[in-house]
Design goal:
373 residues; alpha/beta; TIM Barrel; 11 helices; 8 strands
């Protein structure tokens, strides 16, 4: 059973779950530029609300039970990323839940990145399904849909005093979003560009200083990244931050990631962030749902120490290449019964990410993990 963002491996054309990459390629960092600070030190905590509603406990390195926002802030996190689905069957990760959790985020002085999927469920390189309410809409109506929905969520957050510091217009939109209308076919970015402009304009109308991120899973290849960002740039799309996903088991070496980051920064003159990354601390499985990742990358054992070392290497590589941020994807998603991956069956589906979280199966944080400027 596919558990994590269904379709990613197939969409990338890579069957890399068991690939072990050479240590030489993973242990290096780019020297393209002098190290700068990572000002966006982020964690995607989109499943944390449901976990805590179910009674999950989180413990810091001293064994004290605390709110995971406080624990992660103490390890260096200053930014929280929350996905928003239009009308998920689970009742989680929707507008109301994001509004609720944004208050907890902002109360701690943390910044907020809202990740618009423009779907009722997962959107990723292999799946970009329209929300059911928009299913029959063509590209003209979809532009209005994207504008109105983006503005509504942003303005609702602003009205309660939790204005988003950043938003993503789409999630891992390697070949477009809101398929098939917004899909890039035969190198034609026209329809996608119209949707991206709607999202950008809505965000700026809500709050002119909110940063707009356009996010792909293209840290694997300069050619892939240039194809996409050149394509939207040629259509006049504006954005503030280039977001890339990087998982070494799917996207290859650290050196390649660093090269792509450096190229994206210089080519488009915009800040770059690694919007998603993660690494396993074990190959074992905590529940009845198989793990999305079952092997690691050379030089980084599947231990707490290996997980922390790999995350540190991602941060160092990104920083040295000129990135301004790194976000760990779902560090709090340990296997809490009832907090499954499938929004249509959240109570019964399991967690394919339990070996990738930064908290182990009893809710204790990896004591070696740090986000560093």
């Amino acid at each position: 059973m596919v558990t994590y963002k269904p379709g990613r491996r197939a969409a990338c054309g890579l069957l890399l779950a068991g690939l072990v990459l050479p240590a030489a390629t993973l242990g290096s960092t780019t020297s393209a530029s002098a190290a700068n600070a990572l000002s966006m030190r982020g964690a995607d905590m989109s499943t944390a609300q449901r976990a805590m509603d179910l009674g999950a406990k989180y413990y810091d390195a001293s064994g004290n039970a605390r709110d995971p926002l406080d624990i992660l802030k103490d390890t260096g996190v200053n930014y929280v990323r929350l996905r928003v689905w239009n009308d998920p069957a689970s009742g989680y990760n929707n507008k109301a839940k994001v509004l609720q959790y944004a208050k907890a985020v902002k109360a701690r002085g943390l910044k907020l990145l809202v990740d618009f999927h423009y779907s009722d469920s997962w959107a990723d390189p292999g799946r970009q399904n329209k929300p059911a309410a928009w299913a029959s809409h063509g590209i003209s109506q979809l532009q209005t849909d994207v504008y109105n929905y983006t503005y509504d969520v942003c303005n609702s957050l602003k009205s309660q005093g939790t204005t988003p510091d950043s938003v993503q217009i789409g999630n891992e939109i390697n070949t477009g979003m809101l398929w098939n209308d917004g899909k890039v076919v035969n190198n034609d970015f026209t329809s996608l560009s119209l949707l991206l402009k709607s999202g950008y304009n809505a965000t700026k109308a809500c709050n002119s200083t909110t940063q707009v991120v356009i996010h792909t899973a293209d840290a694997d290849s300069d050619a892939h990244a240039r194809w996409f960002y050149d394509g939207i740039k040629a259509k006049g799309v504006a954005w503030d931050v280039t977001g890339l996903s990087y998982y070494c088991m799917w996207h290859g070496s650290l050196a390649t990631m660093g090269s792509v980051v450096s190229d994206m920064k210089s080519r488009y003159g915009k800040d770059v962030v690694i919007a998603e990354t993660a690494y396993p601390f074990t190959s074992a499985n905590a529940d009845g749902t198989g793990n999305s990742v079952t092997s690691g990358c050379s030089g980084y054992p599947l231990t707490w120490q290996g997980q922390a070392a790999e995350f540190d290497a991602v941060q160092s590589t990104a920083r040295n290449a000129g990135a301004v941020g790194v976000f760990y994807w779902e560090p709090t998603w340990y296997a809490v019964p009832g907090n499954g991956w499938d929004p249509a069956d959240i109570a019964n589906s399991g967690d394919g990410w339990d070996n990738m979280a930064l908290f182990n199966w009893t809710g204790h944080i990896n004591p070696d993990v740090r986000w560093t400027p």
